[in-house]
Amino acid sequence: MSKKGIIAIISGFSGAGKGTVVGELTKKYGYAVSVSATTRKPREGEEEGKSYFFKTKEEFEQMIEADELIEYARYVDNYYGTPKAYVMEQINNGKDVLLEIEMQGALKVKEKFPEVSLIFITTPSVKELRRRLEKRGTEGAEVIDKRLARAKEECDYMESYDYIVENAGLEECVASLHGLLQAIHFSQSNQKELTEKIRKDFDQYQ
Ligand code: 5GP
Q1: Which helix H or strand E contains 165, and what residues bound it?
Q2: Nearest to 104 by CA among 160, 60, 50
Q3: Backbone region of residue 47 per phi and psi (left: phi > 0; alpha: psi in -120 to 50; beta: other values)
Q4: Which of 87, 97, 118, 199 is 20 to 30 A from 49, alpha carbon to alpha carbon?
Q5: Which domains does the chain have, with CATH numbers?
Q6: d(CA 1, CA 102)
Q7: CA 103 to ligand 1: nearest atom
């Protein structure tokens, strides 16, 4: 295994169950999860510093100015961004970090750091997506329609992702993701240290 942790981005349509899946991955397997900053208002039950760092627009724009974010994006009328310090600290301590972020941000991170893995989670169907959004009951009909419209746009970019995982059931999806994340450690971009060591060994051999 590489000594440094990996960064994996988990995106997916709003309502695809990313939050639940990421929560389970942390609980079951100890992955670190980046807590984002947002200008969105807290939903019932969301906690400052756990769900998000809730910011005003002015505070968020200050974070952009001070270069404190790895990436940020506007999503359905609000800003969302990933604070840099926590992610760097975790990977340097050998922990794998999951970033649950939307597509624009994900593609920006991939451009800056090509070794980051992009994982996309989808429901088995659009009908199921709407059902889950309605069941969540946290947004009104207008926001649900906006989120579905956004999902339709995002569908065109699914192929920019390295991995696509269907969320037909929580347990199976979490197990697939854990297997995938473990396998990513062995990708050539995460095995550079070992490759270099073997090359040096050969240079010194004989
Ligand atoms: P929600 O309002 O449902 O919590 O999140 C809306 C969308 O913003 C989701 O697709 C979520 O993955 C995304 N999101 C959350 N945090 C970040 C972030 O730090 N950066 C970006 N680019 N997207 C984020």
Answers
A1: strand 163-166
A2: 160
A3: beta
A4: 118
A5: 7-34+96-205 (3.40.50.300)
A6: 28
A7: 22
Q: What is the pLDDT along the chain (206 residues), one digit of tens a residue?
A: 447 899 999 999 988 999 999 999 999 999 999 999 999 999 999 999 999 999 999 999 999 999 999 999 998 899 999 999 999 999 999 999 999 998 989 999 999 889 999 999 999 999 999 999 898 877 788 888 998 999 999 999 999 999 999 999 999 999 999 999 999 999 998 999 999 999 999 999 97
85 close to 152: Cβ distance less than 8 angstroms: no
Residues within 6 Å of ligand 1 by CB: 14, 36, 40, 71, 73, 75, 80-82, 100-102, 104-105
Q: Which residue has the tokens 């069941």?
A: 135
Chain CA centroid to CA 119, Å: 8
Q: How close is the Cα of 55 to the center of ligand 1, in Å? A: 14
In angstroms, rounded to a whole number, what is the distance separating the alpha carbons of residues 78 and 94?
Answer: 32
Q: What does each C-alpha distance from 188 to 67, 90, 114, 165 come to in angstroms?
A: 30, 21, 12, 22
Q: In what order do the strands lie in the sheet with 7-12?
A: 32-33, 97-100, 7-12, 117-122, 163-166
Ligand 1 centre distance from Cα of residue 18 (Å): 10
